[in-house]
Amino acid sequence: MHCISLIFISCFLNIALGESVDEDNVRPENFEERLSRLEELVDIQSQTITDLREDNTNLRETCLNSSLVMESHHISKRYSNEQVAFYAYLSQGKCFSEHETFIFNTELLDSANSYSTHVGVFITPVTGVYAFSFNVVSAWLEHTQAELMVNGHVKARVFADSDTVKDVHTASNTVVLALQINDHVYVRRGSNAFCTVVSLETAQWTYFAGWRVF
Ligand SMILES: [Ca+2]
What we know:
- Residues 6-21 have low confidence and may be disordered.
- Helix content is 36%, strand content 30%.
- The protein contains one helix and eleven strands; from the N terminus they run H-E-E-E-E-E-E-E-E-E-E-E.
- It folds into two domains: 1-78; 85-212, Jelly Rolls (Sandwich).
- It is α+β, with helices and mostly antiparallel strands.
- It binds calcium ion (CA).
């Protein structure tokens, strides 16, 4: 009986110890193995994210370049780089301060995309001889003056005077200038003027136009 008990106890201890040894040996190994696999997975996913970000940046650049090429192709299909002409006018009258740039906000033509209806400046896309025409309209019993500017220098003036008549008067000018690429041309209010500049859709427009002669 003692023998049987001892054998049973011995078997039990062996089994218990065996399981205990297995747990001590196997679980940490599994844990480390799993941790290692997870670390590998994180590395792979991290690299994948980096690759995808790079792909995304390249695709954005490709799309941007494609749209620019399409845009320039669209413009060049209609006009060559040498064919430059624009025409814009004020959609309504406005009170301008002295030397304030007229921003001709309604554009009917801009073949080389070189006149900005946001800042009111024409930037010459190519060197050449250019003609400009501009017009200004004075208010009732007032006078006004406009100046054509190139890189901050006055190149022409117009003066519309309806001081003594209950009417609006218009004055215009046309000039021809030799310009370099990237010259800035614009129209501003002169010093000898009331603030109001008239522009009426149904009557007369205050406008600015230019084109390359050769
Ligand atoms: Ca424009």
